[in-house]
Amino acid sequence: MIVSLRTRLFLAVVLPVTLVEILVLAFGQLRGDIIEGSLPLFVTAVGASWWFASREDRRMRRMADAALRMASGDFNIQLPDHRGDDVSRLAQSLNRLADASASTFHRLEAESRLVRSIIETMREGVMAVDQDGRITLVNDAMLRLTGHRGAAAGLSPAEVILAPELLQAIREVLEGNPVSREISVTRPLPATLLVNGAPLADGEGALAVVHDTTELHRLHQMRRDFVANVSHELRNPVATIQAAVETLASFTEETQAGDDERRLLATVSRQTARMAALVRDLLGLARIESGQLVLEPRTTDLGDLVPGIMAAFEAQARDKGLTLDLTVDSDTPPGLCDASALHTVIGNLLDNAVKYARPGDRISVHARLDGPARVAIEVSDTGPGIAEEHLPRLFERFYRVDAGRSRELGGTGLGLAIVKHLCAAMGGTVSVKSAVGTGTTFTVQLPADPEPPHN
Ligand code: ADP
């Protein structure tokens, strides 16, 4: 049988209605009985389900509220969790999460307060800047150094820092370059500042720590002036005593003085010579440090200069049974150095080598090219050597491996400090290598003359 589309649509709409009506008629009687008997049950069930559903709904809403409060930083949460169902277990988890979050939050807060108060009590200025170049943290010390008044967080360093030199250093750090240097500023007050700065990890900006070293410099200057003045004042009396002792010594020769007088005079003479050497070295060091010593770097042929310096030690070396030799490599360029300063440097190193060497030891001086633009002069000996632990402090003033032996040999403890300062003043360096029982090598590196005059 072929049924048209219209007929099918009609049947689809009408048939269910008809079916319901037939069913209603058939069960009409039954329905009346059922409704009558089960209405109270039905109402109770609907009421109970409504109450149950709204209670569960309220519990879930409380939990959602609790989660929202935790998200906004309120961890004071205690959800009822004693029913033993799934919702209670969820409540227990939320309660535990709130407790754990609260203790982590308080710990972090305490740590952050501690860091903040450490930064605030620091005498150094501290400034942190984010990747957008905005200040995120700055302490009072930094604000004092910059001369800025009022809040600085959120501003750019340029809006806070008056001194262009300090601003430049901070900008370099922000560009990703670690900075560690001393700068002189005139604003807001004349000062010397040591700036240490480095970019923060993960490109989160940069941190700069600034230390005001003005007072430290003033104290150093005071110490230098004091030493220079004392040495200067002592120089003449010591020279006079030395001359008087020499005259007395010649008298004792003539007057055939007794052994005791001679011994006493020899002691006075030795100690006066020590004092004169000390005053000379202290004054020399003070003059280098204060910048009073004006060096005149000139083209210096080491092959010409060094033999003259060594000549002064030949007799002493011979008397002690030492051999002294010099090698100047043929490709050694002329150095660019102050001849008098170089004379003192090599003289002090040779003096030590001769002083501390044992009979039979060998002292060698070797001048050579050192890289493209430097010359090196090595002063080596096969003497007693120096234990490794002394090497880092060897160039400090008055540092001596064996103070008694140094004094006995007429040392002042200042020779190597003078060497170091003079090398630095000539734009060079000095270093040492040594092994106990094998010997010591001091290497002086100096700038080579880039354009030596042609003959
Ligand atoms: P000093 O006047 O005591 O020689 P220096 O400053 O010249 O003072 O040297 C410091 C110390 O280094 C010396 O006291 C000595 O212990 C040690 N020293 C220097 N040169 C040598 C060397 N060539 N061999 C062994 N020890 C040395």
Account of the protein in words:
With 455 residues, the chain is of the alpha+beta class. 55% of the residues lie in helices and 17% in strands. The protein has eleven helices and twelve strands. A five-stranded antiparallel β-sheet has the order 2-1-5-4-3, sandwiched between helices. It starts with a helix and ends in an 8-residue tail after the last strand. Residues 9-17 have low confidence and may be disordered. Adenosine-5'-diphosphate binds next to helix 9 and helix 11.
Question: What does the secondary structure layout of this molecule look like, with pairings?
Answer:
Layout: H1 5-71, H2 86-121, E1 125-129, E2 135-138, H3 140-146, H4 157-160, H5 164-174, E3 179-185, E4 191-199, E5 206-212, H6 214-255, H7 259-289, E6 298-300, H8 302-319, E7 323-328, E8 335-337, H9 339-356, E9 362-369, E10 374-381, H10 403-408, H11 415-425, E11 429-435, E12 439-447
Parallel strand pairs: 7-9
Antiparallel strand pairs: 1-2, 1-5, 3-4, 4-5, 6-8, 9-10, 10-12, 11-12
Helix pairs in contact: 1-2, 6-7, 7-11, 8-9, 9-11
Bound molecules: adenosine-5'-diphosphate (ADP).
